[in-house]
Design a protein that fits this description.
This protein is α/β, with parallel strands linked by helices and 261 residues long. It is 32% helix and 16% strand. The chain has a 7-stranded parallel sheet, with helices on both faces. A 3-stranded antiparallel sheet has the order 4-8-7, covered by helices on one side. The longest helix is centred in the first third of the chain and has 18 residues. Its EC number is 3.5.99.6. It is an enzyme of class 3 (hydrolase). Catalyzes the reversible isomerization-deamination of glucosamine 6-phosphate (GlcN6P) to form fructose 6-phosphate (Fru6P) and ammonium ion.
Length: 261
């Protein structure tokens, strides 16, 4: 696992955006897996700036999502599909046809999960998947003790997660769905490059357990240790519990520039 320590969230966003831009330059129709939430916003802002300034042509790029609420009506402003279209697809100047995600409003939710796994495979697989991490080490909605071989499936949100997400629903927890569709850990591990961004002291314990702890289902993100090309980008606060922080700083500082991420 490659660990890169950056000064702050903006620097992390710029670094990852350049890695995504470099991928699109090499493979114009790359399939980019995106995550929602506030952590990846600096990535999307930096990548959008590169597109607007003509540094990269993303017109053929494709976007896919990591997870989706179950039961929200099509077009609901807080469905993750709507969020990704608003924060990623539209700013990059892409059409909705460039986007793919699971159908959270399907009558057969399990069938929708299986269909999404098949769609990702038929699309040639995800070239780069962005990930965030929870304070308990979850990735996507794969909570602690999720199977490391799990596929895209329906999960029940914890009460705390629903409380945390209520701010997106006018503060009303009753509007927050109880279930989500999430790529499983096994599905996530099939992407060619995994890039996890973590910022803030609140993520420090989870980052340390992910990077330096054992591979264990109690810390789902630790499965990234099994991947041949996984990059963890953290700011100084999120890196504060890493025993090997100085080693990681030295390694990245002396890495040939042409290798990128």
């Amino acid at each position: 696992m490659e660990v890169v320590i950056v000064p702050d969230a903006k620097a992390g966003g710029e670094l990852i955006a350049e890695a995504m831009a470099a991928l699109v330059r090499r493979k114009p129709d790359a399939l980019l897996g995106v995550a929602t939430g506030s952590t990846p916003l600096p990535i999307y802002e930096a990548l959008t700036a590169k597109v607007r300034e003509g540094e990269v042509d993303a017109s053929r790029a494709r976007i896919c999502q990591l997870d989706e609420y179950v039961g929200l009506p099509a077009g609901h402003p807080e469905s993750y599909r709507s969020v990704v279209l608003r924060e990623v697809v539209e700013p990059l100047g892409l059409s909705e046809s460039a986007f793919m995600g699971p159908d959270g409003s399907a009558e057969d939710v399990q069938g929708a999960c299986e269909a999404y796994d098949r769609a990702l495979a038929e699309a040639g697989g995800v070239d780069l998947q962005l990930l965030g991490i929870g304070t308990d080490g979850h990735i996507g909605f794969n909570e602690p003790c999720s199977s490391l071989a799990s596929r895209t499936r329906i999960k029940t949100l914890t009460e705390q997660t629903r409380v945390d997400n209520a701010r997106f629903f006018e503060g009303d927890i009753e509007q927050v769905p109880h279930h989500v569709i999430t790529q499983g850990i096994g599905t996530i591990l099939e992407a060619r490059h995994l890039v996890l961004l973590a910022t803030g002291e609140g993520k420090a314990d989870a980052v340390a357990a992910t990077v330096e702890g054992p591979v264990a289902s109690v810390v789902p993100a630790s499965a990234l240790q099994l991947h041949p090309h996984a990059t963890v980008v953290v700011d100084e606060a999120a890196a504060s519990k890493l025993k090997l922080a100085e080693y990681f700083r030295h390694t990245y500082a002396n890495k040939p520039a042409w290798q990128g991420l």
